[in-house]
Amino acid sequence: MEFEFSKRISGVKASTIREILKMMNDPQIISFGGGNPASETFPIKKLKEISDDIFNNDPNSILEYGISEGDIDFKQEAIKFLSRNEKIVKEYDQIMVTSGSQQIMDFMAKCLCDEGDLVVCENPSFLGALNAFKSNGAKLIGIEMEDDGIDLVKLEEVLNQPKKPKFIYLIPNFQNPTGITTSYAKRKAIYALAKKYQVLILEDNPYGDLRFKNEAIPSIKSLDDEGLVVYAASFSKIIAPGMRVAVMIGHRDFMAKCTVAKQTSDVHTNAWAQKVMAHFLHETDMNEHLKKLQMVYKNKCELMLREMKKNFSKDCTWTIPDGGMFIWITLPKRIDMPSFVKKAIEHKVAIVPGNAFLDDDSKACQSFRMNFSMPSDQQIIKGVAILGQLMAE
């Protein structure tokens, strides 16, 4: 049978990163292509202890249906955790638990976008979000990145057009894929533009707690006095991604409509995962937990940067992140990017070409993304050396 798919899903391609992750089944592959956190940081023993305790003492709490807004115990612990340094959520009706941040991207577009509506994003940006927006009918308007975040002049030009975007999507901390951090001055300017033109912002912060250099910068949400910022906080990178738990924070009226979207999607996020997360946050010294993670990521990033400096072509440039999981490398024009990626895979090294992260992936791009959190130290050393050899050919 020949299937006739909807126009919305027909225009969305399979994730390049998901396809690359399939290659990980080959033990010979060195993958710099994924977005996985370092598995050695997973608190396996503690999570198992908590899970066993819940099954032994309160199994019905995780085996029955839950409420769409999220488990009250987890929401309470999440609010306490997120309020450590700044007040971005005050009431329970401003926060909803989701099945990972990817679901937040989907709900944002599902609740706001009709076919052909505009969404502004950084260019390049997180592929999963771009696909979620496109699958809900949105047209992407990519705005180039500068060293300290999105180009403000071009952003205002877009916001000042007769057809106003439905929202602006940003990753201010250690952006995926570039590793760039948006400066505080630029965050304030972005919020000022959002207020001026009355446009919502979706602030995605999956990597903020993985800072291993310089001081933390206040979120855009912390500046929000009009309910214009929807904030996405994920626990995938700091606890475990397989649990698929995140929180969506916004104005109570907006969150009420997102709850309806949740009810028509998966009813509620996994009850077991929420309850385990609640206990973990309550029982764990999260500052100490995060310090351990930050040290792991710091060491891996510094190793990759050292090896790149030693092995990569002198006319190659790259970003130096203050945290997160990614480095953005730009090749000289003498190197053909598609051929380079193909040769890398032939030599058992997986990287993601930069065009995969653009608002239009048919555009040429001389950059590619490398992930330093997932590979081992030995793989980083070997893989970077191979890429350096390919650049020299």
Furnish the topology, listing elements before pairings.
Layout: H1 7-10, H2 16-22, E1 30-31, H3 44-57, H4 60-63, H5 72-82, E2 95-98, H6 101-112, E3 118-123, H7 127-135, E4 139-146, E5 149-150, H8 152-159, E6 167-170, H9 184-197, E7 200-204, E8 229-234, E9 246-249, H10 252-265, H11 271-283, H12 286-311, E10 317-318, E11 326-330, H13 337-346, E12 349-350, E13 352-353, E14 367-371, H14 377-392
Parallel strand pairs: 1-12, 3-4, 3-6, 6-7, 7-8
Antiparallel strand pairs: 2-9, 4-5, 8-9, 10-11, 11-14, 13-14
Helix pairs in contact: 3-11, 5-11, 6-7, 6-10, 8-9, 12-14
Features:
single chain; 393 residues; alpha/beta; Aspartate Aminotransferase, domain 1; Aspartate Aminotransferase, domain 2; 2 domains; 8-stranded mixed beta sheet; 4-stranded antiparallel beta sheet; 41% helix; globular
Count of all domains: 2
Indicate the CATH class of the largest domain: Alpha Beta
CATH topology of the largest domain: Aspartate Aminotransferase, domain 2
Number of helices: 14
Number of strands: 14
* Share of helical residues: 40-55%
**Widest sheet: strand ordering:** 2-9-8-7-6-3-4-5
Structural class: alpha/beta
Overall, the morphology is globular
In CATH, the architecture of the largest domain is 3-Layer(aba) Sandwich
The CATH superfamily of the largest domain appears as: Type I PLP-dependent aspartate aminotransferase-like (Major domain)
- Share in β-strands: 5-15%
Question: How would you describe what is shown here?
Answer:
Its cofactor is pyridoxal 5'-phosphate. With about 400 residues, the chain is α/β, with parallel strands linked by helices. The chain has two domains: about 140 residues, Aspartate Aminotransferase, domain 1; about 240 residues, Type I PLP-dependent aspartate aminotransferase-like (Major domain) (Aspartate Aminotransferase, domain 2, 3-Layer(aba) Sandwich), CATH 3.40.640. It is about 40% helix and about 15% strand. It is built from 14 helices and 14 strands. The strands form three sheets. It has an eight-stranded mixed β-sheet, sandwiched between helices. It has a four-stranded antiparallel β-sheet with strand order 10-11-14-13. Helix 3 crosses helix 11, helix 6 packs parallel to helix 7 and helix 12 runs parallel beside helix 14. The mean pLDDT is about 95.
